[in-house]
Amino acid sequence: MNKTLKSYIYKGNIFNFIVLTFNSLCQTAGLIIISLMLEKVMAIAASEELEDLINQGKLFILLFILFVILYLLVTYLKPKYQKKALLQYKNNIYNGIINKSISSFNKNNTSTYISLLTNDVKMIEDNYIFSAFDLITHITLLICTIVIMIIYSPILTLSAIGLSIFPFVGALLIGGKLAFYEKRISDQNASFMHFVKDNLIGFSTIKVFKAEEKIKTLFEKNNDNLEKEKASKTKVLVIMEMVQTVMSLLAQFGVFFIGAYLSIKTDNIAPSVIILFVQLMNYILNPLMQIPSLLSKRLSCKPLFKKAEDIIRKVEEETKVEIKGFDKIEVSNLEFSYDEKTILNNINYTFNKNKSYAVVGASGSGKTTLLNLLLGKETTYLGDIRYNDKELREISLDSLFEISSFVEQNVFVFDDSIINNITMYSNVDEEILNKAIKKSGLSKLIEEKGPNYRCGENGSNLSGGEKQRISIARALIKNVQLLLLDEATSALDNETAISVIDNILAIENVTKIIITHKLDEEILVKFDEILVMKNGKIVESGKFSELINNNSVFRSLVEFID
User: Fold this and answer.
1) Which residues contact 375 (CB under 8 A, 6 or more apart)?
2) CB-based contacts of 221, cutoff 8 Å, min separation 6
3) pLDDT per position as a tens digit, 439-458
4) Residue ranges of domains in the chain
5) CATH entry 1.10.287.110 includes domain 5-312
6) CA quadruple 275, 280, 284, 287: dihedral positive or negative?
7) What is the pLDDT of residue 388?
8) Residue 313 exposure: Cα atoms within 13 Å on the Cβ side
9) 250-266 in b/e burial notation, b at 16+ Cβ within 10 A?
10) CB 248, CB 289: distance < 8 Å
11) pLDDT tens digits along 146-161
12) Which of these ranges, 5-19, 114-128, 233-247, has the smallest mean pLDDT?
């Protein structure tokens, strides 16, 4: 990623930014002019010059019209600036997420990505997007106000600045804590969303095992932790507001009192000037109180930008080699552990081109882990996985996915039409699509419900078997040379499963590696080789007739199923 995420807020948005900045400066000038006009009106009232008063009225009307034009411009440009900034920022976060490798993606919970695109973006919208204009307005207002004050009375100006320091220091000291709480809220929100997502996904399990009360307690605890962090931030804001208000009132009264004293003692300061100073005090106090808060809010976004950069940073694959075709997979001395538990132990095997392999074994024997490693989902294994004599860790996964397809046991279906779920939004030749639908056993479903039938959230409108058929059809429409299936027919009845496996095995010029729990002879005799796994090892391999006639692990598995 060459550009920082923050830069996408401004990309192609500079014109809007400059115009809005100019608008802020114009508004600042307008506020100063109005204050000077008020002083002038008070002076005219003392001199009783009616014509001068009318001229001031005309100038005020002109200024009023200018303000209306400026605000109309803001009404048009501000939403445009905001929309472009947030669109580009969120789009580039999502691009970073979607471009991650599978193993890199799995290093974070999905709730972390959701929080990144929702809660964190909201904080950046509130605390960063428009704060630059507010800072420009307040800083310009402060400088111009001090200059005007000095012109009228340097002594009273020094008094005003001195009295304004107290609310400024209070806001500065308290505002520094905001960045700390913003980061804590972001982290706690990600944890809360992770908990909620898990429980909604596992809703049926909660009901079946009557765990509602325990889950409610855990939800309340997670919710309480989040709201505590938000309440802590609110407390800081309330304290800051209280300090600012009290100190501002004292500063304004102090300027008024000092001005009155100087007017009595020296007779050099007119009452209209004292009123001008009291009015201008707002343009000193408000910026001095707002600038630390705005700076704190902008600084509070810094860890959010960094967090996003760290999470979506993609490891470049410039040094990775590409594979153009498939010849064989050589697995040598393969070992894999997770949380100090050995999952695969000393796997040695060669998968040859255009052969079909059934991988069988009891639950927990390492079958799925083996397939995941073959697809590059994890790279922390020991030993070698070589595609065409090239080690998998050195291969571009994009090139691997070009020649392979994978059907997982847990099928994800998008809330879209059946056809879009099969094609995954790509243009597929109609003949190829129809063949995939037929071979996966989807013809009846599409005839009954139509190709545009909406599948529902994660396929909620479909049965488990229908979702598996869609997943199989997805794999079949790709013109691949390597096909891997993990319990792809587990939700199908035996007759349908046999038919689907038959169709898959009949595909020519494709290497098939299929994990199956169905140990029917009618299915397994059609494979070129059966791999039997136990305790993370391949303990046997051979054709069905060879394995079943031996006093083998495979035979015991078949007899156990029977």
Assistant:
1) 102, 400, 404, 406, 484
2) none
3) 888 999 999 999 999 988 77
4) 5-312, 328-561
5) no
6) positive
7) 93
8) 9
9) ebbebbeebbeebbeee
10) yes
11) 888 888 888 888 888 8
12) 233-247
Tokens of 139: 């800083």
The pTM assigned to this predicted structure is 0.69
Digit-coded pLDDT (tens) for 25-41:
888 888 888 877 777 77
DSSP symbols for 75-133: HHHHHHHHHHHHHHHHHHHHHHHHTS-HHHHTTS-HHHHHHHHTHHHHHHIIIIITHHH
Residues 6+ apart with CB under 8 A from 89: 5, 8, 9, 121, 124
> In sequence order, what DSSP letters do the residues of 332-375 get, joined into one string?
EEEEEEETTEEEEEEEEEEEETT-EEEEEESTTSSHHHHHHHHT
Q: Which fold has domain 328-561?
A: Rossmann fold (3.40.50)
Which whole-number Å values give the CA distances from 86 to 189, 212, 347, in the listed order? 20, 39, 49
Tell me how far the alpha carbon of residue 496 is from its chain's centroid.
40
Residue with tokens 């000037």: 273
Dihedral class, residue 12 (left if φ above 0, else alpha if ψ from -120 to 50, else beta): left
Q: Which residues contact 295 (CB under 8 A, 6 or more apart)?
A: 135, 175
328-561 and 5-312 share a CATH fold: no
Nearest residue to 111 via CA among 187, 194, 186: 194
Could you tell me the CA-to-CA distances from 441 to 24, 303, 466, 474 in Å, in that order? 65, 51, 9, 12
